[in-house]
Fold each of these.
Amino acid sequence: MKKHNINHYSTYGAMKASRVTEYNKSKHRTTGMALMKVNRKNANQLLATVYSNVKQVKPAKYQVGDFVRVSKYKTIFAKRYTPNWSTEIFRIQKVQNTNPRTHLLIDQQSNPIQEGLYEQELHYVKYPEIYLVERVLKRK
């Protein structure tokens, strides 16, 4: 209150009201017009102005046909030395342009996976025909 040189509390309400009217009369960066000039007649024009600068998402990290692994869900007490990615390899069937982008997968037997997965949940497989060795059956 000392900053605005106000001696009594009753003048603060009047000053606040004048600031609000100044704000409503000023031109805004997003809308391009003052708030007092917005009405039902120019509502469509205002929506077109506001939503014309929607950010475009970056290009997809994975394309259709890429081979990927899926991240495993771990609880708090899960062992850290266990793998973070599935041993099964999937192929991307469709890239959906949602926000954030999701990917539909199919497995090696061409069975679709029911849910879409985010890019962060997928890991690109460079050599899909190479598999992990489970155990050695026989030695020479």
Amino acid sequence: MSEYGFKKVLSLDEYASYFKDIDPVSLYKIWTKEYQNDHLIESAPRYNVLYDRVKAAFVVSDPVDWGLDIQVLCDILTSEGLPGGDNGHQPPLYFAAADLEYQSGSVGTQGQRCKLLDGNCSRNIVAYGYFILNDSKDLVIDDPIGPFVMKVGVDFAREPDAFLWRPTSGITCIEESVGSVIAWPADKVIMSMLNATQQRGY
């Protein structure tokens, strides 16, 4: 955002890290620890975030942690730009490419690397693979994958005993799906941000 002339710019992750209790359920989000370790944040704020009010919020992509992002945005928008403060005037909220139909069209490039989160309950990463298609009419073992579902290939099972989201007669757990193509909920697929030449390993 600094390229557009804004002088004080923070990502939501960095901003939230300076407020100890801003996410009331953070203790239960075991799945976020790996992500946080990959995105270490300096302990000293670059700006005086505890006193300077947020002047505007920009949503430019889908979040990794929906709960945290919604919580922080609500705190900012209802407290005149300073979480923990009194209710006041709402700062502007801007959306880039505000598509109201979630994940419409192709959300990834065929072959793009991805992580599969537990399709049943937790947010643990259970496998690594690659995106193939998200056409609801496409088939996996003769059955249409359906809406809000992706067709993915599985390369590696991180949690071998995790149950398959949509088991078949011959495949019931993640380990058995390695080397196969499966259907997986779209909101449980995290696309890699690497380009095709960088997608070697995870």
Amino acid sequence: MAVSDDENLQLIDKKKVVSSVDGKMSKAGRTTDSGLKNVRALLFLFLWYFFSGCTLFMNKYILSYRDGDATLLGSMQMVLTLVCGYIQMWHPCGMGPKASMSLSSKPAGFAKHMVIIGGMRFTTVLLGLVALNFVAVSFTETVKSSAPAFTVVISRIILGSKTGLYVKLSLIPVMGGLALCSANELSYNLPGFTAALLTNISECCQNVYSKMLLSDETYNYTAAELQFYTSLASLVVTIPTCGLLMDWDKVMATTDSTMFMCLVLNGIFFHYQTISAYVLMDYISPVTHSVANTGKRAFLIWTSVILFGNEVTFLSGLGTIIVIFGVLLYNKALNVDGEKKRALGVKLEVAKV
């Protein structure tokens, strides 16, 4: 059947529109959820999970088996992220391009951004330590299970990104499943709950703000750059805090060559945990990152069961299944909402044509 020239032109225009819409989605790929289809994104997701498990093991070993000081542990993590971040700016090791060391090449407001993220990093670490002094780890993890919901709100405020209805609904089993996983030995008091909640909000703000910088089209922020400069900013506040909170008698009594090597190894693990999270953030949205973080926490709970022989309960098993189901549901919801946005975009562009 013959097709008229006018119809051919309309078909060509529509193809251009679809290509344009897809191009916008692709260009914004750093701020959408299509990144997890990328092999490198999956690699850094694995590295993030792996080094998080290593950090968890070393934290438990240093604090419980070596009777280490929590403030010293947190401070050494900041020092090692500073040192390793500086090295990786020269030698990225496949985690992004080599960063420029010249401060004159940095964009306006660079120092302000680094101080803001550095302050949030320090706040997250400090409040996490305060929470652990008042409540059990399981209670802190239960509070943190609300992270995806906070991220949706904070992403809307800072990035202006909108989350579809199906994606919002899919967050319910993800958050509820983690809450069940960590529902054992719950201990509640107001200072502990407040510190855990503020830790959660601070971490979500840090992730969304970091995503905003990584998605900046005027300057190519690298993961190593964020790691080094934010660690430098947070260290400025960490040093006086160490003097106030650290138990120096305990530190002097427990720190030997073995403890020092454990602290250094823990700091290196923590560096790769955080920098792999930064690299991953360049591929996915803050909400997807938060969902992946929720899955990571469920993974770490089961890792602690295997490594430390913690008791496995019915609620832990049920919660894990719900988290896995919720993540699968979330991925499906992303596809559904993504198709709706794409179809709407095509209709709007066609209408303009």
